[in-house]
Amino acid sequence: MCTITMPTKLAAFAWRLCQSILHHLFSNGPHWLEFVSPEISNEDYERLLTILLALWSAKNGNLIPEKDRNEKENPDLDQAMMSKPTVFPTKNRWIPPPMGLHKVNFDGAFDGDGKKGGIGVIIRDNEGFVWGGAAIKIDNVTEGNINEAWAAVKALKVAQEMGYRRIILESDCFWVLNILLMEDVDDGSYIRCIVEEGKRVMGELEECYFHHIEREGNHVANLIARHGVIMSEGDFYWKHDYPNFIHQSIMCDAINL
């Protein structure tokens, strides 16, 4: 099955199914699915997975009404809706956003010796599927705080440019989330300019909430950011897909859903 080419969302679903991650829906999934895959064409196998994914999504929708599902996935959502943007309470693992929102994780990596920075962005939905992301290289970086601030702004821009206008912006850097909420930033003119640009982009989104997460829960974005530091070519963007070097980390988060 691993040699079959298919859309990323179906590939991730098939992997989770064969790892018994979705055992609550398909208790014998790994056995018969692996048996069937060599016997049918790639096209028919993709159709089969599409049907199974639709059944799984429909089952989730029937079991948990949308309002209850939002509360279950993030009990702080209703309180957060009272004012925006809002910083959600800290979590130590990645959790999916409520249905209808995309979670945008970001991180910044900094090489002080080479004065280089990297920015990592990953966008996922309420089922943990990847919808986009970016690895961005920043030259002539003199401070880690500046790189983190740029990472937040770049994450907002990536989400906006890819068409995701209802988001939760998540990071393990509480400082940068907090500074974006301040009415006035007294932290040097350069930081102020970065923050003002971030607020401008936030104002063009329909909804934007902030969520602070512990570092271990933000490992995918951190991995991408560190890759950005060492990239020799230009910035790397993807949509409805993701690079191979973060595959294992994406799947680790999926296992914990």
UniProtKB/TrEMBL annotation:
It comes from the Eukaryota. It comes from Gossypium raimondii (Peruvian cotton). InterPro entries: RNase_H-like_dom_plant, RNase_H-like_EbsB-rel, RNaseH-like_sf, RNaseH_domain, RNaseH_sf. GO terms for molecular function: nucleic acid binding; RNA-DNA hybrid ribonuclease activity. This is RNase H type-1 domain-containing protein. Residues 98-230 form the RNase H type-1 domain. Pfam families: RVT_3 (PF13456).
